[in-house]
Every structure is written in C-alpha cells, then in structure tokens.
Amino acid sequence: MAAVLELIAGSYEQIAFGYRVKTDEKEWTAKADFTHHAHTASISAVAASERFVVTGSKDETIQLYDMKKRIEHGALLHHDGTITCLEFYGSSHLLSGGEDGLLCVWSTKKWECLKSIKAHKGHVMSLSVHPSGKLALSVGTDKTLRTWNLINGRSAFIKNIKQNAHIVRWSPDGNKYVVVANDTVNIYDLETASVTGTVTNPKRISSIKFLNDSILAIAGDDEVVRLCDMGKQKWVCEFKAHETRVKAVDSFNMEDYCVLVTASNDGFIKMWKLHLKEELEPPTLLGEVNTTARLTCLAVWKPSSVQQTAEEPAAEATTSEELAQELSKTKRVRIATEEVILEDESKPKKKKKGGK
Question: 320: helix, coil or strand?
C-alpha cells in the first residue's frame, strides 16, 4: 500500500512549500500540494505533527497549518526575535526556541503557551525533546548545554561546553545525544552526561538526522551527505546529494528500508532509498522535485504517527544519573498535563496522581 506523506520545506523567499509524495511507483513523484506565504521574512524552522505543520521565521512569528482541514490556522506570537527551532512532542505539545533566549512549551489543543522559560542568556540555537517526553536539551550562544525537566518546566542541570553549539539531538532510543559546534559532533552518554566520542566533518555542519540508534546523517556546507556510525565513531558512507550545499536532512522509515530526504540551496528536494545494514551502500535516488526556491529547512509530514500515552510524571531529578534512572522506568510519557506545567511556582500545590 502506498504511504501518505508530504515534504514540507521553508525558503528564503518567505514561502512554505508542501509536496504530496506518491510512493507506489518505482520512481516516486512529488506533486505540488500547497504554498503558504504567511511570513514577511525568510523561514528559519519547520516541524510537523500528524495534524499540524508549523513554520518559524525571522519575522518573529510561528505560523500554523492544519493539514487535516487544509487551512491556515493562525500564528503564535510570543517570541521577540527570529524563531530558531521548533519541535513537536507527539501530537500534544510543541516546543519553540528563539533569538530572545526563550524556550516555549505550547499545547496543541488550544495553542496556549503553557510555559515560557528564559533558557539561555543569548539565543536558543537548537532544542531536542527526549523520546520519553520528560526532558529536553537546549544549546545557546551562551556556550551552555541545558537540560530541562518538562514535568515542572525547570532547569535540571547546566553544562558549560566552552563553545557555541548550534545543534543538539537525542538518539531515537534516548540513551545518547549529540551536540554540534561548527564542524564537530560530540557524542554524549545519558547516564554520565559526558562526551564518549567525537566526529569531525570536513565542512561546517548545517543539519543532522539519526536514521536509527547508531547511524547519523550529516549535511554540511557542501553538496555531500555523510553517514557516520556513532558507536564506532567512523564514517560509513558518503554521497553527492546536490549541486550546491545541502541545507537540511530528514528521514522516515518504510517497511524494509529508510528514506533520507535532502534539501538544498539549489532548490531541489530529493528522496533517497537506503538499506540500513552492516555494510552500508550509497543510497539510490527515489525521486526529486525542483521548488525553484532557496530552501532553508525541511520536514516530513506523515498523518499516522504513533500516539503517545500519558503515564505518571517523573519525580524531580537533579543529576544526570537520577534522570537516567527516572527515564529507564518508562519509555513513553506525554510531556506533562497542562495543570502541572501551569502551576504557580510561588505556591506549591499537591500534585494529583498521574498529574491529572
């Protein structure tokens, strides 16, 4: 059966593009589905949940698109400065970061800002939510890596990393995370919160994506995409993806292979078929589309992502070991119920069981 999915890309030209992909042929085709020109400056970030697509811009707004009703759904106005990063947690919450140093948690039910955290002294450059939904990582221009307890919206701990990192990502299993500064990827272990390995890319890194728990796809300021085995800390494959530099990479899984999606300054979005096995072979091109725009960011929209269920929230953890223990208890938890995250910190209340 053909999968239903769309490629969503943002551009310098202020436009967000949506392309419906037909996956039932040998060569995949991407047909123009929509263009949204809701922003008044270039688009800097894009994210997709099963219902919504969101774009962030230098115009300081986050624009919402309802993919079910196929209509624009309004704008979120809270940040003062460029929106630098957007990430959904399941279908219930969106996290946003900006040049104002704020990290905001939004409920997707009523699109309220549940929590606005002054996360960094400079800009928030990147954020990543743990697969459990209990904590998030952020990096900023204050040379820190910060861990946030999303159950209570407070800082769990701060690590000085001596340089301004611009990307942070959890591995899909949540046991490790990577921090990117310029051309270097530092691999961290969750339990020790210390660097277990380092990989250096030939060029400054623009985008990364975990294809599974060990293989990381890395795009930099050139036309090549490189795949790295994080466990072995070695390059396992590289291929020329575009004519000019690759700006963004994303991926999704089909039944027995992985699809890597790349977007470039040359205007093309390309889909690559990759078999994730012991000996990685360069991927084959499944299909491509020319947007004729200068692309800046990329997301894949699939309507049938797995729904995550709410369980009892975590106790407050203050060290990396405690967080690791807390996370090992349950793998799938919603970020937090609105009542918990909205609690007035000056008046401690008793939490009801299950955070309800």
Answer: helix
| Cβ neighbours, 10 Å, residue 54 | 28
Please report which helix (H) or strand (E) contains residue 35, including its range. strand 29-36
Cα–Cα distances in angstroms (integers) from residue 97 to residues 16, 220, 336, in the given order:
19, 22, 18
DSSP 138: E
Sign of CA dihedral 81, 63, 56, 292: negative
Asked if residues 126 and 167 have their Cβ atoms less than 8 Å apart, the reply is yes
Q: Whose CA is closest to 217, among 229, 206, 226, 204?
A: 226
For residue 52, the SS3 value is strand
Terminal alpha carbon distance of the chain: 39
Given a contact cutoff of 8 angstroms between Cβ atoms, the answer to whether 168 and 205 are in contact is no
pTM: 0.86
| Structure letter (DSSP) for residue 33 | E
**248 bridge partner residues:** 263
* CB 189 within 8 Å of CB 206: no
What are the pLDDT digits (tens) for 3-51?
689 999 999 999 999 999 998 888 899 999 999 999 999 999 999 999 9
61-to-47, 74, 78, 79, 147 alpha-carbon distances in Å: 14, 10, 8, 7, 25
CB 293 within 8 Å of CB 13: yes
Residue where the block lists tokens 């930099």? 220
Q: Phi first, then psi: give them for residue 84, nearest 5 degrees.
A: -100, -30
Cα three-residue angle 251-113-319, rounded to 5 degrees: 70
- 66 touches 84 (CB < 8 A): no
| 290 within 8 A of 11, measured Cβ to Cβ | no
User: 173-230, pLDDT tens digit by residue?
Assistant: 999 999 999 999 999 999 888 999 999 999 999 999 999 999 999 999 999 999 999 9
Secondary structure in 3-state letters for 204-255: CEEEEEECCCCEEEEEECCCEEEEEECCCCEEEEEEECCCCCEEEEEEEECC
| Identity at 32, one-letter amino acid code | A
- Whether residue 239 contacts residue 225, with contact meaning beta carbons closer than 8 Å, is answered with yes
